[in-house]
Amino acid sequence: MNSDPTAYGQYVDSTMMYISLVSLTFLLGISATMVYFVFKYNRKKGVKPVDIHGSMLLETVWFVIPLILVMSMFYYGFIGYKDFRTIPKDALEINVTARMWNWDFVYANGMNLDTLYVPVNKSIKLNLISNDVNHALYIPAFRIKQDVIGGTQHYMIFKADKIGSYNIACAEYCGLDHSAMYTRVVVMPEEEYNKWYESNTKDEIKEIKTEEVAKKDSTN
Amino acid sequence: MANGTIAIDDKSFLEEGTTKKATGIASWLFSTDHKRIGLMYLIAIAIFFFTGAILGVLMRLELIAPGRTIMDAQTYNTIFTLHGVIMIFLFIIPGIPAVFGNFFLPLQLGAKDVAFPRLNLLSFWIYLIGAALVLISLFVEGGPIDTGWTFYIPYSVRTTTNVSLAIFAAFVLGFSSILTGLNFVTTVHRLRAPGMTYFKMPLFVWSTYATAWIQIIATPVIGITILLVVLERLFGVGIFDPALGGDPVLFQHMFWIYSHPAVYIMILPAMGVVSEIIPTFARRTIFGYRAIAMSSLAIAFIGYLVWAHHMFTSGISETAAIIFSFLTFIVALPSAIKVFNWVATMYKGSIDPQPPFLWVMSFIFLFSIGGLTGLVLGALVTDVHVHDTYFVVAHFHYVMFGGTGTIFFAALYYWFPKMTGKMYNLKLAKFNAALFFVAFNTLYFPKFIMGYMGMPRRYYDYLPEFQNLQVVSTVGSWLMIIVICLIIYNLLSGLLNGSKAEANPWGGVTLEWHIASPPPLENFHEIPEVTHEPYDFSQLKNMKYGLKGESK
Question: Which residues of chain A does B318 touch, with a Cβ-Cβ cutoff of 8 Å?
């Protein structure tokens, strides 16, 4: 699972792994016990069932153990989430406007693109606003998502450690072309990004060589 | 309960109605008999369930390949909305309480009917009117609704489809739900047979009772929300739409303040049915009666406090998200306790795995997956990733269809002989249960994987990397529709050509098994005096029971 392009994504995957393993243990335990009982206590002539009304000890045990386990899950979720929502001081800000049915990424120098280009190893803060209905900016490879709504600006933070190009999808249903709101986030080496950024102004945006980037793309 | 003598020559409720003058179909439509009303709900709900299932199959067929397969995007958006609206508002919310609650709550309490029989008929009529409005909204100008069953604003204010009429239908259906809840609470409080203390009530009664409270308290919130949306659409009053100065997240809060408790309206009655079926087929008392009864109430009340876990990515404050995540994990516990107690009830039992029991085994597996994947959605970091993806769709279907739907079938197979006086084909019913298990997992399990891979929900089109799993899921939908057809076939042919059912084919001991199948008009000739615990199988000594021709 260390193929994640972000450290945060890796954290999400390991939390997922933890919850899944605990869940699988319970699922198999419950199912196996049930099937075992059905065979072992199958109705036979002359064998009388035993009425057991309950056990305070067992009720306590199967309250407390799950309680501890779910609290640990809550804790992992909570710690990672705090990280996800904390804005780093040096974050590079990019404004994002969503509309039916495309994305608009606006950089500090005024340039305006439908694909998101970001430097590697740099915290990025996306300021999200919608022009119309609700949308959600979702980068599955980074394990992050944020609803984009009208009227209130929300933000989303990420920091990619791996160069590559990854999908951006809309995750909040927004009508006819909801499923066609795909674009890409392209993570570039810092120097290359700077060179590209400085050579572009609002009026003329040079084509970027995405092929090179795509070659290095390992996950998507 | 000793006086549960069966008078053979009595007329059943199927032959004798409450109406003096009306005959034929009118004697049903105007009947205040809780049993007839329950059966009428069953017919209506079964039709809607089948319709919703067909829509689901059509969606799966569209998704068998990327791009356009059999329909355009607008049609697809309409179909997934209708699938949701029909399954949620017309099938699964009324589902078990309206059919089996109506039929069996008074029987299990030892009552002649519900507390307000006429109000009960009114509930049914309101349900029909609501359903008719949904149908009308499909065909009038503007076209069928395309917002998803969650009606999120601003989309639902801006789309030109018939949102107002469709959600007004949900408003009307809400009243049916509230009145049924009111009726059941009163029935439980006032009409218990002598000797039936609260802790002698069967657990189906407990869970229906807890559900009824949610119906009464939570449903008005969706009514208010719907009226506000209609105001906004028709008169441009700015409440939720940011373009009019409203707040779209406020809508989500109000929607989920109802709709989260509503998922407990859907699942709690099913849990009650499980607590009936397991003791009957294990022929021993339930393990942890009080723990199960109290966990129903706990779910009903804590269930009000977790609604914002549907909104972790909506931009609510971090503090709110953390608190709601915490409470969500707490509400998981009562459900876990129930599952442990059910499995423990099989310990040292005398288990006869007849069809209803097999369905319950299926339920325990599927519902456990549904519940455990809920933990992934409760934890903040994982929820942010899988929110609004197929993972949620899979989780929801495991809980609602694998949970409530499975138990709807289990309850049908359990109580069908009591309701109709006829028996279905047991072998076919066992085969149904097995095939259902395979079909269900083929249909829905791939969605967990697709969801974690990043497949968003409500997508008409998708990336090629998802196609293999989409195809598996679509094949599952074909198996599922075969299972559903087999169930309908089995029950209908049982009804028409089945052998006569015994009064107590399974050896159950709750009060409904002490009277004839089908029961007479007013259920009990003499109101029984309850002296036993609900699952005291020593009563079987004085009862006639067993399947016809059974040698056991």
Answer: 81-82, 85
